[in-house]
Amino acid sequence: MNRYADATRSLRLDPESQAGGYFKHAVYNHWDPYEDIPEELLERDRQALLDAEFDADESDGLAQGLALFGAGEEAVTEDLAPLSMVLDDIDDQMFISSQIYEEAKHTQFFDRYWRDVLVPVCKERGWEVPMPTDDEFFMDDYVALFDDVEAAMHRLLEEDTPENRVRAYCHYHLVVESVLAQTGYFGLTSAFQEDPSSEIVRDDAPEIPHLPGLVEGLSYIRSDEGRHVGWGMHKVQQHIREDDVDPQVVRDTLQSLMGNVANIVSYEENFVNPVPLVGYARDKLTRRIEIITDASAEIPDVDELVALDTSDDLAAGD
Predict the structure, then answer these.
(1) 116-129 pLDDT per residue, tens
(2) CA distances from 49 to 33, 60, 109, 205, 313 (A)
(3) Among 51, 71, 80, 118, fewest CB within 10 Å belongs to which?
């Protein structure tokens, strides 16, 4: 059979498909970790961290958070490759290509921030310079969660079934991105924005500097993640509806990973209060399960998915 001919379609792409719409949104909302995060913002971050009244031990909380997110973005840049190999729809293939590219950009942003902000600040303040790959930053639950993501994705190369695809989407799109990443980014943004959230910041936190460069970079990343989550939710719902995948597969997979997420979100940190974030994460998980296991439920449109939560949403439960 001629692989370039397909009797089931007249044109190659379906721009009106869910994946086609997400891909178009990714193209229109492209950003560059260097061009769109001006050096001036990073200089303000460096100065704010130099002026802040906290010591090296207290700064480790920020360093650990950035190390965890940078490593996570690097890991999924690689871990999504098996999924891209088994997808058979060109619109899905194009979207997952854009997602892998975006995860690589997120990795680049965290690398740049470490090099251009954290390292110079530590050197000028006479502190030991930490590296984002230091073992001390990575707790057992974090390692276990990402090992599970990798295993779920690579399983597709050995046994590509609708159930295993659902498990892969659950591990990555619905737990790592929809719950862990969105919760963590929300927490960091709420703490280091110009007006820190009293709901998020610890009562005994040291002085919290405003870090506009970090907040700006996270806003771009959070917007990308919302689009990724929407596509993953759509694919899971599609497998339930069209391939008769039991919704219990979704519930069991997501709930089996929530313990790891709660422990990661609760890591000892000097600035952010983990208690409201654990509740935020659990609510995210519950709402995702409710939507994707209901064949008649509508997944929010892309503009809603990429809208950024604020501290007001903590009480509202989004």
Answers:
(1) 999 999 999 999 99
(2) 21, 12, 18, 15, 28
(3) 51
Q: Ramachandran region of residue 87, left (φ > 0), alpha (ψ -120 to 50) or beta?
A: beta
Tokens of 37: 């995060």
- The letter for the amino acid at 86 is V
The pair of three-digit structure tokens given for residue 90, joined into one six-digit string: 């060109």
**Two tokens, residue 318:** 């989004």
Kindly tell me the sign of the dihedral angle through the C-alpha atoms of 237, 239, 244, 245.
Answer: negative
Q: Helix count (H) and strand count (E) of the chain?
A: 14, 0
Phi first, then psi: what are they for 99, rounded to 5°? -70, -45
pTM here is 0.89
Q: Where are the domains of the chain?
A: 38-316
In sequence order, the β-bridge partners of residue 201 are: 272
Quick: pLDDT tens for 3-38. 666 667 677 888 888 889 899 999 999 999 999 999
Count of residues in the chain: 318
Fold of 38-316: Ribonucleotide Reductase, subunit A (1.10.620)
As a whole number of angstroms, the distance between CA 180 and CA 282 comes to 10
Question: 112-122 burial, b for 16+ CB within 10 Å, e for fewer?
Answer: bbbebbbbbbb
With beta carbons less than 8 A apart as the criterion, state whether 42 and 117 touch: yes
Cα–Cα distance list, 102 to 88, 295, 303 (Å): 21, 29, 18
